[in-house]
Design brief:
The complex is a heterodimer of chains A (162) and B (106). Chain A has 162 residues and is mostly helical. Chain A contains seven helices and no strands. In chain A, helix 2 packs antiparallel against helix 3 (48-72). Chain A is flat and about 50 Å long. Chain B has 106 residues and is mostly helical. Helices cover 79% and strands 0% of the residues of chain B. Chain B has three helices and no strands. Chain B is elongated and about 55 Å long. The chains are: A mainly alpha (162), B mainly alpha (106). Chains A and B meet through helix 1, helix 2, helix 3, helix 4 and helix 5 of A and helix 1, helix 2 and helix 3 of B.
Chain lengths: 162, 106
């Protein structure tokens, strides 16, 4: 139980860090750490297949994608970064305050927990659900992936043509 | 891996809204397009966490996992296409600041 509390606290901490941090590169690294911690939580909750996806795709591919985009855009020099950070702190200073107030409010509230679990799954495992019940979802996923690929190809092609 | 469900529900009700607050706040407040994308990513993480917790608590993890995988795939596509759009916007405006998007038609 304490491990879950620590993991969720770390998840929140790195999320705040990704939002508040001055440089975008460090924000991307903080986001990768968020994905890694989320994967650990998924493993702990017995969701191994989704955890592997989260770890490989979100902590790996998306982080590389973010770093590529950051490297392809114009990097700011030190002075600009410091000015931007000061401006961000002015705009974002109340985010940790809101988070702390939210936590304090929940601490004093007695949250009712009356949850009735309903086991309605009769299939063996998630692979059976994925391949037997959600074939149309898989088709949709393939279509979305193709759309994403075509979208990126069109965007990059237009850049090269110009 | 015996986790107390009641205590876990309390943790869910605390930390998932927190992640929502952080992500939503980032999207609203920031002027940088890449950071707004990071905020969107944090929002998606909150949804993922909520789905996994719901699957665990109800005992329907075999249903929750394919849904989470679908969510991750759609998230990747959205991030990739948006990153391409951001690169094109940067190429035209030489800035990632949303306040500099003055040349949009319509």
């Amino acid at each position: 139980m304490y491990i879950d509390l620590v993991l969720l606290s770390l998840l929140t901490f790195f999320s705040i860090w990704a939002v508040m941090r001055g440089t975008l590169l460090r924000a991307a690294i903080a986001l990768a750490l968020v994905s890694i911690i989320l994967s650990i939580i998924m493993f702990r909750l017995g969701s191994a297949l989704a955890a592997v996806f989260e770890l490989s795709v979100c902590a790996g591919f998306i982080t590389v994608l973010f770093m590529s985009v950051i490297s392809l855009t114009k990097p700011m020099n030190y002075v600009e970064t410091m000015e931007m950070t000061k401006g961000r702190i002015k705009r974002f200073w109340y985010l940790p305050v809101i988070v702390l107030l939210f936590l304090a409010g929940l601490f004093f509230l007695n949250i009712p927990v009356h949850f009735k679990a309903q086991n309605i799954v009769s299939l063996a495992n998630e692979r059976a659900v994925l391949w037997n019940l959600r074939q149309f979802d898989l088709f949709g996923q393939v279509v979305v992936l193709l759309l994403g690929v075509f979208g990126i190809v069109i965007l990059i092609k237009s850049r090269f043509e110009e | 891996m015996a986790i107390d469900n009641a205590a876990l529900m309390k943790l869910i009700l605390i930390f998932v809204p927190l992640l929502f607050i952080i992500g939503f706040f980032c999207i609203i407040i920031t002027h940088n397009m890449i950071r707004a994308l990071i905020g969107l990513e944090i929002l998606t993480k909150a949804v993922t966490l909520l789905l996994v917790f719901a699957g665990y608590i109800t005992g329907n993890m075999p249903f929750a996992q394919p849904l989470v995988i679908t969510l991750i795939i759609i998230e990747v596509v959205i991030i990739a296409v948006t990153a391409g759009v951001i690169l094109n916007v940067f190429k035209h405006n030489k800035s990632l600041d949303v306040r500099n998007l003055r040349t949009l038609k319509g």
